[in-house]
Amino acid sequence: MDLSYGKEYEDFRAEVREFVAGNWPPKGAEAELPKEEGRRRFRARATEQGYLNRAIPKPYGGSEQAPDEIKANIIREEFRRVHAPGDVTGIGTMMLVPTLLEKGEEWQKEKFVPPTIRGEIGWCQGYSEPGSGSDLASLKTRGELVGDEWVINGQKIWTTTAQQADYMFCLCRTEPEAPKHAGISYLLIPMKQPGVEVRPLRQMTGGADFNEVFLTDAKTPKDWIVGKRGEGWLVSRATLKHERNSIGAAATSTAILAGLVHLAKTTQRAGKPCIEDPEIRQRLVTIEGYVRSHEYSGYRQLTLNSRGESPGILQLMNKLMSTNIGSEAAKLALDVLGEDGLLDAQGSEEMVLLPSGNRSWIAQYMYSLGIAVAGGTANIQRNVIGERGLGLPRDVYADRSPAK
Amino acid sequence: MNFELSEEQHLLQQTVRQFLENECPATHLRAVFEGETGFDPALWKGMVEMGLAGLHLPESFGGAGLEMIDLALVSETLGWGAAPGPFLGHALAGLAILLAGSDEQKQRWLPRLAGGDAIATVAFDETGGLWQPEEWALKPGRALSGTKLNVPFASLADVFVVGLAGGELALVEKSASGIEIRSLEGVDRGRRIDRVVFDGTPAEALPKAAEASARVRDAGLVLLAADAFGAGSRLLDMCVKYAKTREQFGVTIGHFQALKHQLANMALEIEPARALYWYAAHAFDHIPKQAPRSAALAKAHLTERAMQIARDSVEAHGGIGFTWECDVQLWFKRAMFDRAFLGTPSIHRERAAKLAGW
Fold it and tell me: Which of A107, A2, A293 is nearest to B297 (CA)?
């Protein structure tokens, strides 16, 4: 075992650090540019150096680097250290781009990948429907080919960034007579058109991070389909896999622990910092046991991935580990907050005399439940661990027939 | 970055595992459990021949010169097999002599321990759960008087490493006068424990004990964490196998989500924690600053998790799980030992909090 990166990688780190120091924050005349333009130029240079968009082929604006988990990690660490812009985040780069690269037509890659990775166009995901959550393949939104266009009718829900998005990648039922999973196609739909109505969905925290999207005779060109008709389910599997990996990063868990320790040190109870309370200490260390297990399991996954070996059951556990840690941390934070747990995180600054960090814990107390559901509920994750990880028999799905 | 076992380390675990499968199947394990001493000389001899008695001792003393991670990997495998015998006390006593002994003491004892010509153990606990070096109260001196509890296989040992006030350590030979050993009916019948009463017993100080005693305790915490991981993962295996074979309502019970989710939760509790004990073992030799706290965290977390898995395992097996006949009880008791020996999880959580400066 060796937890250092070794000479070759330390040299690489020095090279990345030098590049970042020379280019971020913007220097000279560039320092006067609008913030977004400064970020755009930095990203372009970093891509040219091979530091960003590493998995994207050069013809589509990427730097096409050989996969190297350790280098990717060093880049993330060094960029984050000075708050330099990293790869454009969001559902477009995270889910649509990998899908297009794997399953898309040449013209689709050329048209959509470059502006998406530059952050010039934004996407939202049209998967879940009011009646189709965990049983996603029962979805009912219809796509009918009329002449040269798909005409789409139905409703999508939990659509993050739908208001800002330029396009939606959407699962639609285009083959109503086919069996459930085989009747779905993966369509790309422009959002800025009369047939698309976005309504914010207010969640229990009081904020609105999600939307409902109503599709009423929405239209998209015939060839804006990824994969063939009826192959949408298979096409979408690639993207869900990507989402599971990214939500499960251990970095979030270690950050939550650090925040929690800070909260317990700075919050007073009966004239003493909460961190001196024996029960709080016990619970903090209990949470830390899970956090370090997650963190060090991350080292192991990194090692195995970098050798092209499978981390096995561990990689199925990332999301649930994060979810459980977030949930336990939020519960402990609320106990530390004491009577401030009566207050609303959305309250106005002058009425709520909470330090702003504390307000975020009240939101986190509720958000941690949202995270447990997003991208496959905790119970679905348990099915995956049980079936794919432990080899237990699959659930008996009652319904494999066409959706009504 | 390399946080994975080497070929040699994989091979070490496979070899020990194969040995236990051949020499100590559940039927044999039960015979040892129900026997008079809880000790199987042939099994111990086999372990000595594989080099396990001196794995962590320098080659110059007849050991294998390996690191804490290797010793912990063996401990995991012994937990996996619920292997009976004096490995834990023997390994810790050897480490204590190595770290705290004079050249003459090392020369006298270590080759014998590594070669299996003598068995050693540690006498740490005192009435009131005083396991930690900073808590020991037995008065140092040329002659010892007082009581040590929960000494593994005292009746079997040729030599004791005894913890004394101020974190001092002393060697006491079995042949010395004034030693009374009485069996405590320990729950883990593969790792018997005794009460040892000293009455003017001649003892020989280990001269460099001041820092060594805490290191020996930390090593013990890592080994117990590893053992608990082995026991917990074995219990999970047993439950998964059972879920794939036991039928109710016309299907194997693994089809039912209630059980499937319980087993998934058990896997989620134990599998990631493997990395926690690896890290603590790695830190023991390579990241000295983090070693004490990592050891405390690993012991607290893993022994707590393994114990809960043992409880869940009884439940997952239904009625048969509650019987003496079902093998779950053997590992359940293994987990009880790992949890309580050297202090319960809550004690080490509090230590970890203190060590973080909280």
Answer: A293
Answer yes or no: is B314 within a domain.
yes
**Alpha-carbon distances, residue A259 vs A12, A286, B20, B274 (angstroms):** 31, 15, 46, 25
Indicate whether A324 belongs to any domain: yes
Q: Report in angstroms the alpha-carbon separations of A391 from A16, B187, B249, B273.
A: 43, 33, 20, 21
On whether the CB atoms of residues B100 and B207 are closer than 8 A, the answer is: yes
- Which residue does chain B place closest to A274, by CA atoms? B358
Distances (CA, A) of A3 to A76, B242, B279: 17, 38, 10
- To the nearest 10 degrees (0 to 180), the angle between helices B291-316 and B328-340 is 150
Question: Can you point out the beta strands (E) in A44-117?
Answer: none
Strands B159-164 and B120-123: parallel
Nearest to A89 by CA among A51, A47, A123: A123
Backbone torsions φ then ψ of B210, nearest 5 degrees: -45, -50
For residue B61, list its beta bridge partners. Answer: none
C-beta separation of A139 from A171 below 8 A: yes
Cα(B224)–Cα(A18) distance, rounded to whole angstroms?
A: 45
Q: Which helix (H) or strand (E) holds A349?
A: none
**Average of per-residue pLDDT across A293-298:** 93
Q: What is the ipTM of this complex?
A: 0.97
Tell me the pLDDT tens digit for each residue of A171-229.
Answer: 999 999 999 999 999 999 999 999 999 999 998 888 888 999 999 999 999 999 999 99
Residues shown for chain B? 358
Q: Identify the domain containing residue A18 by its residue range.
A: 7-81
Min CA distance, A287 vs chain B (Å)? 9
Distance CA A128, CA A158 (A): 7
How far is B219 from B226, CA to CA, in rounded Å? 11
Pairing of strands A167-173, A210-221: unpaired
Expressed in percent and rounded to 5, the helix, strand and coil fractions of chain B are 60, 15, 25
Band (A247; pLDDT cuts 50, 70, 90): very low
Q: Give me the average pLDDT of each 10-residue run along chain B (358 residues).
A: 93 98 96 95 98 98 98 98 98 98 98 98 97 98 98 97 98 97 96 98 96 97 98 98 96 96 98 98 97 98 98 97 96 98 98 98
Q: Do A202 and A268 lie in a common domain?
A: no
| B93 token code pair | 């006593």
Partners of A392 on chain B (C-beta within 8 Å) are 240, 243-244, 254-255, 260, 263
Last residue of a domain, one of B96, B115, B134: B115
A265 contacts on B by Cβ (under 8 Å):
358
Q: How far is A300 from chain B (nearest CA, A)?
A: 5
* Residues B220, B348 within the same domain: yes
Instruction: Tell me how far apart the alpha carbons of residues B358 and B350 are, in angstroms, rounded to a whole number.
Output: 10
Q: Judge if A361 and A255 occupy the same domain.
A: yes
The structure's pTM equals: 0.91
Distance CA A56, CA A68 (A): 13
Please indicate if any CB of chain A lies within 8 Å of the CB of B223.
Answer: no
Residues of A acting as catalytic residues: 243
